[in-house]
Specification:
The chain is an alpha+beta fold. It has 11 helices and 9 strands. The protein has 2 domains: 88 residues, Phosphorylase Kinase, domain 1, CATH 3.30.200.20; 233 residues, Orthogonal Bundle (Transferase(Phosphotransferase), domain 1), CATH 1.10.510.10.
Length: 383
Amino acid sequence: MSIRPTPENPPRATHPVVLDAGQASYELVRSLGQGHHGELLLTRLRYHQGEGGYTVLKRLNRVVRQEDYQRLVEEARLGGQLRHPNIVSVQLLAGSAAEPFLLLEYVEGARLGDLMRLAARSGRGFSEAFACYVTSEVAEGLHYAHTVNDEKGRHLAVVHRDVTPQGILVGRYGEVKLMDFGAAWSRLEGRISTEGDTDVGNLAYSSPERAMLELLDGRSDLFSLGLVLLQLLTGRHLLGAAPRYEAELLSRQLQARGDGSGRVPGLEEMSPLRTSELMKRMRQLSLQEVEEAARPLPEGLRPILHRTLAPRKEDRYSTGAELGQALRDHLWRSGLRYGRAELVAEVSSLTEAVLEDLEESSGSLKRGRTGPRGRRGGPGKAS
């Protein structure tokens, strides 16, 4: 159904329509990058009477396997079972069999991975309280996913399998949400088998048991979350695998465009040799390596990291709830009050500092080109 332009109803400029849903359409605002098996698009609802709110649509990439389509449907079915404040909710599966779309909750804010890049480029770090708070929130979401039952009361035994900084959203109002269960394993009826599939999840944040191709449970996700926590606290990846992580993100973007990747700088981290070396390091990870990485941390935090990143899953926290409580207890014992308001303030401070750095850098370049006239009215003006 459409409204014909008339003098009383003139034509209006619109964004491209991604999905027509009859009484409403979803208009493209911008791409949000790649998720598992598809691109994430920020869209805005358009009704005949006016605009609506924002929704994220996941659509399959142009170069797609039948397995990707099945996984998208599976993600929709699994997402329908997951309703938790620390998990991005799946609203519905729409579109056609030829062009399906997964409709997801829109959370205004930034991905944790993007914030970490900003911090690294500006030479700034996150507070201990920020790291503990964000990790405890994600741990609560994981605990819920790991323990959820289906509508018949059967335990789904969900394992996310891709807990990374880029899969954690930090909302404008202090929300912390885990997103994209496109790589998840579960006991959902009718799911396709992905055991032993090395194309599932980001290898840089995998657990030792995944490197050994063992069956996974929720403790694997907690290890991945521990890697994120350590990186937030120290700015370093336990296994030095940050370049591999960036390479995997780039590779996913190239594959979505149908690019054969060619000789793109950075993708050498994806070579079979580098992959084999990383998996070997994961399999051979020792408690001594974990203890050494955690040595610079406050004394109260070290035991938490030791347990979360224990090479043997039997030595880790058994549930996300345990990990979350341990982190909250640490904040309380340290006298650190931290919640949504403090998180919003810290992220705002980081982004403002980065903008100031960019302005100073731009000002320096202009002064270098224009000489003394470039300083008029600027920060360098004499008082």
